[in-house]
Amino acid sequence: MFFHPMDFLILIAFAVSVWAQFRVKGNFNKWSQVGTRAHLTGAEVARRILDRNGLYDVRIEVVRGTLSDHYDPRSRVVRLSERVYYGNSIASVSVAAHEVGHAIQHQEAYGALVLRHRMFPVVNLTSGAAPFLLIGGFLFQNLSLIGLGILFFSAVVAFQLITLPVEFNASSRAKTLMLAEGMIYNDEEHGVNKVLNAAALTYVAAALISLLELLKYVMIFFQGQREE
User: Fold this and answer.
1) Taking the alpha carbons of 211, 118, 124, 63 in that order, is the dihedral positive or negative?
2) Are 10 and 222 in contact (CB under 8 A)?
3) pLDDT single digits (tens) 119-158
4) Where exactly are the transmembrane stretches of this chain (predicted)?
């Protein structure tokens, strides 16, 4: 009952996700050892890009942790980990510029980001309820519960899929802005791509796992309907 042919694909996607996480850390550590010729720290790059785009009111704060960098749209704050904030490596400036890319998306009301923000309260609810509905549906062989669980889980998958263009666009903006402002040189672009592409792969893997899980549940649901 609990094994399904789709489980094999999900396991492969999970393996890709684990590999992607290792790749992110590996690329970040590697390119953290390579300084930029502009000798700018992540904080300096973030501040310059923000100011060039008129985002003088967006603050930059340092937070503890590794790869804990993020943009908080509610507080309008770019939070950078210590290695990124103080570091002047290719990895540091790449991550800093990527997070600033989200701040610029927020300013411009970038479509995918706006939709993602609007979906967040709903997804916050459905992501917690979906597992219980699905488990309950399978345990009691109740198709109605399974169907409701699928509906709730679909919102989670949609949220993850919408996250992809948001992340890819932020990375694209980061590279373009740094090159245009002379914060990195053309021969340093390779390292920037390595750092940003590795991070993007983690989002792709997570979305793929969720999508395959959703397809599995849908197939089980329709199979159950045929058997009734």
Assistant:
1) positive
2) no
3) 999 999 999 999 999 999 999 989 999 999 999 999 999 9
4) 119-140, 145-166, 200-222
